[in-house]
Design a protein that fits this description.
Blueprint lengths: L3 H8 L7 E15 L14 E15 L3 E14 L7 E13 L4 E10 L5
Antiparallel strand pairs: 1-2, 2-3, 3-4, 4-5
């Protein structure tokens, strides 16, 4: 421990300052659908309450000239009258941005696995 201050003084000119980002998120939603499967035949219409539980997190960093942000969300869809339709959605996106005096570059990527009943 006693050598930490001299080491920090020697190597401080070459280190980059970063702000680390961590932002947890939790959402809950409930809605009613009177025709979940979008059927035209009245005998096959299913009505249900749909509960969506959505935990998520944003991770990344910010530096003087660039930043990286990653968002991940997991949506759990629960159909109360049609449990065979229950589904887990996975949403991931990544965004990196670099800024300099003359130009800015941005790189974005995403992966979504979403439900589609119809």
């Amino acid at each position: 421990m006693k050598h930490l201050l001299p080491i920090m003084a020697v190597f401080s000119n070459t280190c980059q300052a970063l702000d680390w980002l961590f932002e947890p998120d939790l959402r809950a939603n409930e809605r009613y659908a009177d025709n979940v499967t979008m059927q035209a035949n009245p005998a096959s219409i299913i009505s249900s309450m749909i509960t969506t539980l959505s935990p998520g997190v944003m991770l990344g960093y910010q530096a003087e000239d660039n930043e990286l942000k990653t968002h991940f969300r997991w949506n759990e869809l629960i159909y109360h009258n049609a449990s065979s339709l229950d589904f887990s959605e996975k949403l991931l996106d990544v965004n990196h941005r670099y800024r300099s005096e003359r130009f800015t570059t941005s790189l974005a990527a995403a992966y979504y696995e979403q439900s589609s009943i119809n």
